[in-house]
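Throughout our pipeline, every protein is held as a single compact record rather than as scattered files. This encoding replaces a full spatial description with a residue-level series of whole-number codes. The remainder of this section carries one protein's record, kept here as part of the documentation.
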Amino acid sequence: MIEKINQKQKILAYMRTYGAITPVDAMREFSCMRLGARIAELKADGHNIRTEMVGSRNRFGDRVHYASYSLK
């Protein structure tokens, strides 16, 4: 029987492969709309995850901030 991989496992594998994940990455890759909740669960499971606030501009030129999560 093939075991399904849940969002937490996919997010953890993504961070191991690519170094970091943002909410846009999580939405695009896994249709995950609550990345912060999944990160909190991973932290509760004992994973050492760093949160960095990143600044950028949106398509209208407005300044926006979002979290980027990576494994320590």
About this structure: The chain has a mean pLDDT of 94. The chain has one domain: 7-71.
